[in-house]
């Protein structure tokens, strides 16, 4: 057996240590760039996120490569050679959703004449990777598998795996089950009442798990059913999240209270007992400061005659305490857009 002296061990370590340190440094920098890009992506700032995703991908970050491909594809509305390059990098690294992008039909290929030559191979690879993980209880794999079956044209298996992920506590899957049942009218029900019961079941499960898009949809659904006390509860809760649409809606409803029906339409009123102008307007002002969006200010202006200078001074003060260091996002899904 070959023996190595302590001296050679030290020399060997000194040789590989810089390489190891550089690798760790690159990994850390790639993660940092990806997270920065991802936050911008979730704020609909795809143009600003792309350079960060590209740099992270150059450092070997697989998911960053997927999102770089996504941004480029969305900018052109179809697959380009550049987006294909990043999708292939991610797919070769094991990202199932990148495989599914490459597996989609040639309608997304634009001017790429040969972009679908291995489409079926990527679909089969995605299925082969996802199925055993899903069967072992991995809910993320279940959701990826559902997307694979959707591309394959197997809508029953698509629904089955979303439902299984939902049953295993996946908050987005629970929300998506509600969308599939209510907006896509998936699944068979003898009565509409039965369908609506399941819609509410999944929305509540997702909302309780903390998913803000479910909170918003649940509030709207309960309002439509006349269950206003329950709906008002979720309007209050969703105002404390980081989801733009939910915070905007909560701020408007709290600020205007019952007046929202007179200003806009009775159908959108949650019939709060009274307006809470300071609380609601402060939330809207904080939302504007965080996002630069005009809609929050427009809502304040729509209620301007009820907002005295004294109220607005209090609004200004309170708004500085809200959404501090909280990036406001849109909860865009990884796949499907």
What does this 3D model show about the protein?
- With 337 residues, the chain is mainly alpha-helical.
- Among the domains are: 20-93, Alpha Horseshoe (Serine Threonine Protein Phosphatase 5, Tetratricopeptide repeat), CATH 1.25.40; 234-337, no CATH class.
- Helix content is 69%, strand content 0%.
- The protein is built from 17 helices and no strands.
- The chain has helices spanning 6-41, 46-58, 62-76, 81-92, 96-103, 119-135, 139-152, 155-167, 171-182, 192-208, 212-224, 228-238, 244-256, 260-263, 277-291, 295-302, 309-319.
- Helix 1 runs antiparallel to helix 2, helix 8 (155-167) crosses helix 9 and helix 13 (244-256) runs parallel beside helix 16.
- The protein is globular.
- The termini are far apart.
- The model is unreliable at 9-14 (pLDDT under 50).
- This is Sel1 repeat family protein.
- InterPro entries: F-box_motif, TPR-like_helical_dom_sf.
- It comes from Marinobacter halophilus.
Strand content: under 5%
- The helix-and-strand class reads mainly alpha
Contiguous helical run count: 17
Shape: globular
Helix content: 55-70%
Main beta sheet, described?
none
Average pLDDT: 91
Span between termini: 59 Å
Write the layout of secondary structure elements.
Elements lengths: L5 H36 L4 H13 L3 H15 L4 H12 L3 H8 L15 H17 L3 H14 L2 H13 L3 H12 L9 H17 L3 H13 L3 H11 L5 H13 L3 H4 L13 H15 L3 H8 L6 H11 L18
Helix pairs in contact: 1-2, 1-3, 2-3, 3-4, 4-5, 5-6, 5-7, 6-7, 7-8, 8-9, 9-10, 10-11, 11-12, 12-13, 13-15, 13-16, 15-16, 15-17
Protein name: Sel1 repeat family protein
InterPro entries: F-box_motif (IPR053301), TPR-like_helical_dom_sf (IPR011990)
Keywords: Signal
């Amino acid at each position: 057996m070959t023996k190595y002296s302590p001296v050679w061990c030290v020399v060997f370590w000194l040789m590989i240590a810089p390489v190891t340190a550089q690798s760790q440094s690159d990994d850390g920098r790639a993660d940092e760039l990806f997270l920065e890009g991802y936050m911008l992506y979730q704020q609909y700032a795809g143009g600003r996120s792309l350079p960060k995703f590209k740099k992270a991908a150059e450092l070997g970050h697989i998911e960053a490569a997927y999102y770089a491909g996504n941004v480029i594809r969305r900018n052109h509305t179809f697959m380009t050679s550049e987006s294909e390059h990043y999708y292939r990098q991610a797919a070769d690294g094991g990202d199932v959703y990148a495989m599914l992008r490459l597996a989609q039909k040639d309608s997304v290929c634009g001017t790429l004449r040969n972009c679908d030559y291995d489409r079926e191979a990527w679909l089969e690879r995605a299925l082969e990777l996802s199925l055993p993980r899903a069967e072992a209880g991995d809910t993320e794999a279940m959701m990826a598998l559902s997307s694979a079956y959707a591309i394959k044209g197997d809508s029953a298996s698509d629904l089955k795996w979303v439902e299984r992920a939902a049953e295993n506590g996946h908050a987005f899957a629970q929300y998506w089950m509600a969308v599939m049942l209510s907006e896509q009218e998936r699944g068979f029900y003898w009565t509409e009442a039965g369908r609506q019961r399941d819609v509410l079941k999944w929305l509540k499960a997702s909302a309780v798990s903390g998913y803000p898009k479910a909170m918003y949809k649940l509030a709207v659904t309960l309002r439509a059913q006349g269950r206003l006390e329950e709906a008002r509860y979720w309007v209050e809760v969703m105002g404390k999240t980081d989801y733009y649409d939910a915070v905007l809606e909560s701020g408007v409803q709290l600020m205007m209270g019952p007046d929202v029906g007179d200003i806009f339409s009775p159908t959108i009123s949650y019939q709060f007992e009274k307006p809470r102008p300071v609380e609601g307007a402060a939330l809207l002002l904080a939302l504007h400061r965080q996002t630069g969006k005009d809609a929050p200010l427009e809502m304040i202006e729509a209620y301007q005659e009820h907002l005295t200078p004294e109220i607005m001074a209090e609004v200004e003060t309170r708004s500085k305490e809200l959404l501090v260091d909280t990036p406001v996002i849109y909860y865009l899904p990884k796949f499907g857009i």
